[in-house]
Structures are given as structure tokens and as C-alpha cells.
Design brief:
This protein has 454 residues and is mainly alpha-helical. The protein has 20 helices and two strands. The longest helix is centred in the N-terminal third of the chain and has 29 residues. It is globular.
Length: 454
């Protein structure tokens, strides 16, 4: 009997040990799941640690400062890509909101970037077949009887009014259709590279010297593409090899046809910006670490002067034109364009990510925290994926605005929330006030603001 009892006996603590081990495994599993979620949604890590007393004021000031700068820069970069200027504000809003949830850096500003806009403009010139791209005559683009008067009309004007052409043998695409297709495919590339964790690989392959050479070339092409606006000369846009030489050839041929009013506006803007940057700005650094947003001030004064003097009619000065209120309805980008732009989208994806990771690493090292390159790749990808549904071109991190955001006292990514909120208010309220902004003065202030990018 004793033997039978011994044969049927068991350790009474075995069950408890198994239960404890199962509970420990469950906690480990839940911990790993939560860690994965936090790594892919960084906002869950820092939001619950947010200290309003230490960070709120700095985030608010930095967010509003960057928001003010985003208006002229965003509109100008959109024109550089042959897109309506309002799309630049859309890009700043959506990129900031998405990055607030997905980004691992606390001090960067996102939106349209000069280098990516040059690449976008090249693809738009190759594939878009509108008779009058926005950069050729932005005023006429918005002054026709079919011009968009609301965000809904704006989207319909670009995505639907040309649908009938797509049934022909040679389909016609608008600039926004091409740019949004470029953004969504570049976003897909970036998400795929994030899945395979290729972020660090491209960072190593694209060295600092390569990026510097590329951005220097972009700076030259930016100046070349906008020289006609400084002089008030109508010059056709070229694509392909030697396009810069053809542009300067036409500029010199038509130099005697330059508009005096455009030259005067250009000279005034350049003098003001040079005096501020070379004389006043170094002295102001000793007084305040927050730089005076001189470029937006020049844009504001130029807009007011253009409106009061009616430069559009009296001096034949090209202006921004109609700026619709609110957001456009989301529309699915045309994926049928993908085969025509695969190489371009890959270049946009790699260059956009490299610009972003370079800037985030610089600031992270300065502030003493680390970033996740793979998560940054995901962030850039989803920014482009989401923005493409709202008429946005490919986006990345801007050096000049990021430096201002850091200098203005930004602490966390709540800064992105304040930037987006400010731009949304502008979009629904005072956006149409920029309709009288002269393109020539706007471009000069934009070039000075963008000089920090190179």
C-alpha cells in the first residue's frame, strides 16, 4: 500500500512552479509585444513622460516659429516642383503630424525639401502634360473660370477634370497626379527598406561627401530654374542633359526684355536679406538664441506692398494667385504611373531618407540621445504614403527649419503638433491673404532661407 501510494504520489509544488513559469512567460511575451509596439510607435514611450512645466513653453514657441517659416518655404518649394503653392502647406501639416507619432528625433522639422522638389520637378516635366504648369504662370493657373475655389474643387480640378484625357491613346496627367504617385511609390520603397533594415546600409554608402556634392548641384539648379523669376523673363522649361545651358542661353537672349519692376523688387529683397544676414544677425545672436524670421517678414511686407500697389495689374508682376481654404478630399494616387518612375522613386526614397537620418543624427548627438535608423525609415515611408493621398509630393527633413526649431527651445515632438495646428489655422483663415505675394520676392527670400540646406 505504501508502495502504491508512492507510485501515485507527486510533488505538490510542481503545479505551482509550472503556474509561476507560465505566468512569467506570459509577462515576458506581453513585455516583448509592448516593447515592439513602443519601438514602432515612439509616441507611446515619451508622451506619458511629458512634463508640461519643463517642455510646454519651449515646444509652443518652437512650433509657432517653425510654422511661420513653413508658409513661405512650403509654398516656394511646391512651385519649384511645378505644383500649386498650397500643396507645400499640406506637406508641412501632414509630415509633422505623422512624424509626431512615428519619429524618434525630438528636434526636426519636415516638409518639402529643395533637393527632392528638384527631382519631383524633373519627373513632373517628363510625365505631366498640362499646357500651363503652375510655375509658368501661377496667376493664370488660378484665374480661369474653372479654377478651384475650395479644397474640394481644388482636388477635383486636378484629379478629375483630366480623367477624360486618360481614355485616349496618350493619357494626360496633371502635376499633382504625377507628384502624388511619386510620393506613394517612394513611401513603399522606404517601408520595404525598413522591413529589411537597410537604413544604415544606405547611410554608409551615401557618404557626407556624396551628399554635399549632390546638394551643391541642387543649389545650382535651384538658382538656374528661378533666375527667370528674378528678371521677369518668360523662359521655357527644359528637361534632359544640358538643360541648364539651354536655360541660360535663353536668359541672355532675352536679357533686354527684363521687367524693371521685377528687378526693383529683386534688388530690394536681396539688400534687406543680405544686410540682415551679414550685419544684424550676428549681433542678435548675442541677445537672443531665437533668430528673427526675416524671410517670412520679407514675404509678409512684400505681400502687403503688392496688394496695396496692385503690382499684378500696374507692373505686370507675377503673383502666387488663388490660395484655396481648407484641405482637399483624399484621393488615391495613380499607380499606373509606377512603371514610368521606378528608378526616380528609388532615388527619391534613398535621398530623402539620407537627408533625414543625417539631420537627426546631428541633432541627436548634440542633445545626447539616440535615434533608431530603422524606425526613421518607417517614419519617412509612412509620411510619404499618407501625404500622397492629400496632393503631397515626397517629403523629408529640412536642415534650416530643424536648426531653428532646436534653437527656439523645442524639447519634444509636441512641437510638431503646434506647427501643424498653426498651419491648419492659417489654411482656414488667412491663407488667401498670400494671393498677392510676388513670386520674385518670394523666391529670393526662399533662396536665402534655403541657403542653410547647402
Amino acid at each position: 500500500m505504501v508502495g502504491g501510494s508512492e507510485g501515485q504520489s507527486y510533488d505538490p509544488g510542481l503545479r505551482k512552479r509550472l503556474q509561476k513559469r507560465a505566468q512569467a512567460c506570459g509577462r515576458c511575451s506581453r513585455g516583448r509585444v509592448w516593447g515592439t509596439v513602443k519601438s514602432r510607435l515612439p509616441i507611446l514611450d515619451w508622451l506619458f513622460k511629458y512634463n508640461p512645466r519643463q517642455a510646454f513653453l519651449g515646444d509652443l514657441i518652437a512650433g509657432l516659429t517653425v510654422g511661420v517659416m513653413s508658409i513661405p518655404q512650403g509654398m516656394g518649394y511646391a512651385l519649384m516642383a511645378d505644383l500649386p503653392p498650397i500643396t507645400g502647406i499640406y506637406a508641412s501639416i501632414f509630415s509633422s503630424l505623422i512624424y509626431m507619432f512615428l519619429g524618434t528625433s525630438s528636434h526636426v522639422s519636415l516638409g518639402l525639401v529643395a533637393s527632392l522638389c528638384m527631382l519631383t520637378g524633373k519627373v513632373v516635366a517628363d510625365l505631366a502634360t498640362l499646357d500651363a504648369p503652375p510655375t509658368a504662370n501661377a496667376t493664370d493657373f488660378y484665374s480661369t473660370s474653372t479654377a478651384p475655389q475650395s479644397p474640394e474643387d481644388f482636388t477635383t480640378y486636378h484629379f478629375s477634370d483630366y480623367a477624360d484625357f486618360n481614355t485616349t491613346a496618350d493619357p494626360t496627367y496633371s502635376p499633382i497626379q504625377v507628384a502624388s504617385a511619386l510620393a506613394i511609390i517612394a513611401g513603399v520603397w522606404q517601408v520595404m527598406m525598413g522591413v529589411f533594415q537597410l537604413g544604415e546600409v544606405f547611410t554608409i554608402l551615401l557618404s557626407e561627401m556624396v551628399i554635399s556634392g549632390f546638394t551643391t548641384g541642387v543649389a545650382f539648379h535651384v538658382l538656374t530654374s528661378q533666375a527667370k523669376n528674378f528678371l521677369g523673363i518668360a523662359v521655357p522649361r527644359y528637361s534632359g542633359p544640358f538643360k541648364a545651358f539651354y536655360t541660360y542661353r535663353d536668359l541672355f537672349k532675352n536679357l533686354l526684355n527684363a521687367k524693371p519692376a521685377a528687378l526693383v523688387v529683386s534688388a530690394i529683397c536681396m539688400v534687406v536679406l543680405v544686410v540682415y544676414n551679414e550685419v544684424i544677425k550676428p549681433k542678435m545672436r548675442k541677445v537672443s538664441r531665437i533668430p528673427l524670421p526675416i524671410e517670412p517678414l520679407v514675404v509678409g511686407v512684400g505681400t502687403l506692398a503688392s496688394y496695396l500697389l496692385n503690382m499684378k495689374d500696374n507692373n505686370n508682376i507675377a503673383v502666387i494667385g488663388h490660395v484655396p481654404k481648407g484641405f482637399p478630399k483624399p484621393s488615391m494616387p495613380l499607380l499606373e504611373l509606377a512603371p514610368s518612375m521606378l528608378l526616380d522613386t528609388f532615388l527619391v526614397a534613398v535621398i530623402g531618407y539620407t537627408l533625414a537620418i543625417s539631420m537627426t543624427k546631428i541633432i541627436a548627438k548634440k542633445k545626447g540621445y539616440t535615434i533608431d535608423p530603422t524606425q526613421e525609415m518607417y517614419a519617412q515611408g509612412f509620411i510619404n504614403l499618407f501625404g500622397s493621398f492629400f496632393s503631397c509630393a515626397p517629403m523629408s527633413v529640412l536642415l534650416s527649419r530643424s536648426m531653428v526649431q532646436e534653437a527656439a527651445g523645442g524639447v519634444t515632438n509636441i512641437t510638431c503638433f503646434f506647427t501643424s495646428g498653426f498651419l491648419i489655422v492659417v489654411l482656414y483663415s488667412i491663407g488667401p491673404l498670400f494671393e498677392s505675394l510676388p513670386i520674385v520676392g518670394h523666391w529670393i527670400s526662399l533662396l536665402f532661407a534655403s541657403s542653410h540646406e547647402y
